[in-house]
Amino acid sequence: MGPWGVLQPIADGLKNFVKEENLPGGASRWLFYLAPVISMFPAFVVFAVIPFAAPLATPWGTVNMIVADLPIGFLFIVALSSLGVYGLVLAGWSSNSKYPFLGGVRASAQMISYEVALGLSLVPILMLSGNVSLPEIVRQQQTTLWYVLPLLVGFLCFAVSYFAETNRLPFDLPEAESELVHGFHTEYSAMKFAIFLLAEYANLITASALMATFFFGGWDIPFWSGDNMAVAADGTVVGATPAWWITMLTAVVFALKTAFFVFVFIWVRWTVPRFRYDQVMALGWKVLIPLVVVYIAVLGVAMLVLSGAGIEFGLAYVGWLAALNVVLFLAVFFWLDRSRVVTGAGWRQVRSYQLQSRR
Description:
The protein is mainly α. Helix content is 64%, strand content 5%. It has helices at 8-18, 29-46, 73-81, 84-94, 98-129, 134-143, 152-165, 177-180, 190-215, 244-271, 277-308, 315-336, 347-358, and strands spanning 53-58, 61-65, 229-231, 237-239. Helix 5 (98-129) packs parallel to helix 11 (277-308), helix 7 (152-165) runs antiparallel to helix 11 and helix 9 crosses helix 10.
């Protein structure tokens, strides 16, 4: 519909408004209605504490471009992002149907499992920045290096965990169409069904924005110091002089970074097949969580060694951590793994056949 189909999403949205609402006979009415709202609420609320542009000078002073400038924004994100699973569990349970109930059970097991790895993968950011304020985390990346370099392994664990948290392929087991019809929202229709899809893509955008903020400098423009500014606690500006065009330019850069990660989410959905459920659970509990715990210990030892050597936090400090993370990345993902973590159903038989053919 429309040129190149650009109006089709609008038509689909209008269609959901006018479609007939269905309520299963044995469903718990109020919980059935409440579940879509609970699933959508965390994604929109979490986005409120993400800074999306450089500070803006106004007649009333210079302000951070953030909806809710909380001093504990980091902890707010960790607490609120874990509430989305309640909407999926309620949707499956309140439908009083077998397929949605099984999808809700899968969602609870998967999302709670990867919530542990997700929270642990953010601990290295606290260790390196020593701050829970998101504007301060962005400012430190401006003055040194983006955290994707000194925390490369932590970023990869964070990305994998958020794929599972958002139920995106290859982790979309709670709504596997080939097994569970449509999983936890099989019994939903019209706008309530659309709210679940809206919540999924809202979580996708929020996850992309968090990756850009925590690991890719947020709204920072690389190789330019003209946007290196921050608002101190007393309202004074530290660094460059604010200007409206700098704020607009940094907002565009932040949008481009977020759009890149949205593309990565969609790209993976196009190319990677779905895991088996035992592979999903094994990856979470046997690989990610032990890996992140060991990584935190190794990073802590490295930071103690650097501090003992008299190297203060700065470009040299994060440079040494970046070199360590490159070595750890190569060791973990190209040597220790060697296709042993997530393997196909007939991997052992294929491997046995290959060994016999060589003989």
